[in-house]
Design goal:
- This protein is α/β, with parallel strands linked by helices and about 220 residues long.
- The protein has a single domain (about 10-210), classed as NagB/RpiA/CoA transferase-like (Rossmann fold, 3-Layer(aba) Sandwich).
- It has helices spanning about 20-35, 45-55, 70-75, 75-80, 90-95, 100-110, 140-145, 160-185; strands at about 40, 60-65, 85, 115-120, 120-125, 130-135, 150-155, 160, 195, 205-210.
- The protein has a six-stranded parallel beta sheet with strand order 1-10-7-4-2-3, with helices on both faces.
- Strand 5 and strand 6 form a beta hairpin.
- It is globular and about 50 Å long.
Length: about 220
Amino acid sequence: MTAVTPVEPTAQHAPFAASADEATITRTADALRSKGYDVLVVEDRAAAKAAALGLVPEGAEVSQGASKTLEELGIAAEIDESGRYDAVRARTRAMDRSTAEGLRAMRKLGASPDIQLNSAAAVTEDGTIVVVSNTGSQLAPIAFGAGKVIFVLGSQKIVPDLESAMRRIEEHVLPLENARMQGIYGVDSAVNKVLIVNREFRSGRFAVVLIKEPIGF
């Protein structure tokens, strides 16, 4: 899929932006738990921030994927700026990108943190998590490299099935992310790489904080 011209959300985006109902949230949480994930269902943003950070020990090595959800919750800034954690992203951003050695060090450090904080583009009611990325940098730690992965998801990201997840990415997430990237960097975004997680084979490796109210894209 190629990048698109920035557009504002219209009526067609509404189904992908509204909170899920209680029954759907419960069904999705149960499906995630059935796969061995630790799931916390919380009411609002304040509870979500507390729950997510409560899963990260002080001093832990922790990285995070680029995420509107983590930014809006204040989690991104807390990890990178509080000094309470060994913040991988802050370290990689300080590395020299102009040399092969610097890029190699950035790549290796970012691929295997002890803890990875992330959101996702969609989660299906049967517990499949779909993560989309322009560069792919956040996919390696989620797929295998990180010791533990903590997902933070607004309930508007719950969809019935994988087909709906891909529609959500194309019709809702990409236009909004593209507009954000244009506003910050003057460049287009694109759905270059997609990770579909049907199940994590290492028990206890995944934790999910599921927020009843919408947040992020």
